[in-house]
Specification:
The chain is of the alpha+beta class. It folds into two domains: 120 residues, no CATH class; 97 residues, no CATH class. 41% of the residues lie in helices and 8% in strands. The chain has eleven helices and four strands; from the N terminus they run αααααααββββαααα. It has a four-stranded antiparallel beta sheet. A hairpin with a 2-residue loop joins strand 1 and strand 2. Helix 1 packs antiparallel against helix 2, helix 4 runs parallel beside helix 7 and helix 6 crosses helix 7. The longest helix has 17 residues. The chain is elongated, with a radius of gyration of 22 Å. It starts with a helix and ends in a 6-residue tail after the last helix. 29% of the residues are buried.
Length: 258
């Protein structure tokens, strides 16, 4: 964890709390302790900025296990990855990011730093993404699938050229499935939280077999959302996390495994 970032975040948190008339709360006292701690030390362990975020949300900070390893939820990776940073930025553009100033002031501060390409640790970025996914869209938000992204003919041929599966159309993940009667295929698009039929209903006509999801695409999806794009199950096994999908889906969709 970047101790300079820890110190600055504690300082900013204290300023926000003081401005809100909460300078004498336990959270403000903890921020002062962290401010003093990171002003005099070059390394940090245990209680950190992610725990300050949890406290600001009324949650308990993560604790260490008896073996000395950090408990689940603690940052193990240091700074946020490029994919995390890009995904968080896209969510801030689509969601009502400004509302976090009142509901999650520390995450709003972290997001503001991120917008300016400033530093952010892996755990704080992960929590920012989680909160943003639960935040309402901006009033002027237009779904990505409805945005104009092509300069080719504006009228796609009304024929289905693909089979069941998942495809990558530009930046959109599109799932093609059969209806209940197994009489026709239709498409749904991943909106960042679920497969949405309304947004993806006509995308099937734009798909070609060459757009079928590759192993690399499936891995990127699992890395971003923590679940298999094919079956929707959470990735918990170490090998599945590494691949982005499990052995069953690998066999079913002809993807490499092991």
């Amino acid at each position: 964890m970047d101790t300079t970032l820890e110190y600055e975040m504690a300082t900013d948190a204290l300023a926000v709390l003081t401005a809100a008339g909460k300078g004498d709360t336990p959270l403000a006292a903890r921020a002062r302790e962290l401010q003093a701690k990171y002003q005099t030390t070059a390394t940090s362990t245990g209680f950190g900025v992610a725990d300050l975020v949890r406290l600001s949300n009324g949650e308990k900070p993560a604790k260490k296990t008896d073996g000395g390893q950090k408990a689940t939820g603690s940052s193990k990776r240091g700074g946020a990855t490029d994919k995390q940073r890009d995904f968080a930025k896209s969510l801030m553009n689509d969601r009502d990011f400004g509302s976090l100033f009142y509901t999650h002031p520390l995450l709003h501060e972290a997001g503001t730093r991120l917008q300016g390409d400033g530093p952010i640790d892996w755990q704080t970025c992960s929590e920012l993404i989680s909160v943003l996914k639960e935040t309402a869209y901006r009033a002027d938000y237009v779904p990505k699938a409805q945005r104009s992204t092509t300069t080719t003919s504006p009228r796609a041929p009304r024929e289905v050229r693909v089979e069941e599966g998942i495809y990558l159309l530009g930046d959109d993940y599109v799932k093609v499935v059969h209806n209940q009667d197994h009489t026709r295929l239709y498409s749904k698009v991943w909106d960042g939280e679920c497969w949405d039929y309304e947004q993806g209903r006509n995308l099937i006509y734009k798909l070609t077999p060459e757009m079928a999801l590759t192993a690399e695409d499936a891995h990127e999806f699992g890395d971003l959302y923590g679940e298999c794009c094919f079956c929707g199950l959470a990735l918990t096994d170490e090998r599945s996390i590494s691949a982005g999908y499990g052995p069953t889906c690998a066999s079913k969709h002809g993807l490499p495994w092991g």
